[in-house]
Inverse folding.
């Protein structure tokens, strides 16, 4: 099993550009999550999903959108990138509400 | 919000036991204590969790006080690869699977 995979590993965006961060898991987990981590800080939950077609906001959802059309994939969309969205983004998955498994992260720099 | 208090940093000599404390005085009866760690900006990695009994696995032991207001993560023989930020987190299991990460404890294992 590859576990949780994220692409790209690193990206530079200009202010106002859009992009989609990809996340996929092959563990047949029904729950998936997106977190962001700013330098020196803990992780903050952006959005989560408890199954295909079901998503909900976390602690810091503004400026982001998600969709969950399949069990495996949970993409995160940034519509109008802002410098405040410079961060490391982690995707995670779990079987129901049990242990979360994290991907390697995507480093995003908005200039 | 589920709040935990951890020391910002600790040192440990290689080969010795590392004891990482966590205070969680507001924890409620159905909330599990989870420990994750994050090695050098990689995705967080699950270590162990417990409700009220002490727990042990191949990575660590978790000691929870009888009143459940604090816990200690024990790495019995720390190695240089255990240098990481360790997070102590509440999780209400079935009703609240949204982890709240604080700043954690930076454990530095010295040769």
């Amino acid at each position: 099993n590859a576990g949780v995979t994220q692409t790209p590993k690193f990206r530079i965006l200009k202010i106002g550009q859009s992009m989609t961060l990809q996340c996929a898991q092959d563990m047949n987990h029904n729950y998936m999550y997106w977190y962001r981590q700013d330098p020196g800080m803990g992780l903050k939950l952006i959005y989560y999903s408890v199954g295909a077609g079901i998503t909900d906001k976390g602690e810091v959802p503004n400026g982001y959108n998600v969709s969950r059309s399949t069990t495996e994939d949970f993409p995160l969309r940034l519509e109008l990138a802002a410098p405040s969205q410079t961060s490391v983004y982690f995707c995670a998955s779990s079987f129901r509400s049990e242990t979360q498994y994290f991907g390697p992260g995507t480093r995003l720099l908005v200039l | 919000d589920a709040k935990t208090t951890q020391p910002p940093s600790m040192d440990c000599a290689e080969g010795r036991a590392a004891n990482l404390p966590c205070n969680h005085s507001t924890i409620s009866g159905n909330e599990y204590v989870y420990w994750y760690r994050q090695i050098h900006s990689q995705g967080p990695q699950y270590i162990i969790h417990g409700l009220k009994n002490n727990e042990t696995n191949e990575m660590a032991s978790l000691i929870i006080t009888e009143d459940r207001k604090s816990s200690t993560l024990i790495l019995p023989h720390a190695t240089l690869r255990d240098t990481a930020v360790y997070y102590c987190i509440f999780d209400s299991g079935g009703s609240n699977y949204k982890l709240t990460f604080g700043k954690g404890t930076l454990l530095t294992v010295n040769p």
Summary: The interface with chain B takes residues 4, 31, 33, 35, 40-45, 48, 58-59, 88, 90, 92, 94, 96-97, 99-105 of chain A (CB under 8 Å). The mean pLDDT of chain A is 94. The longest strand of chain A covers residues 43-51.
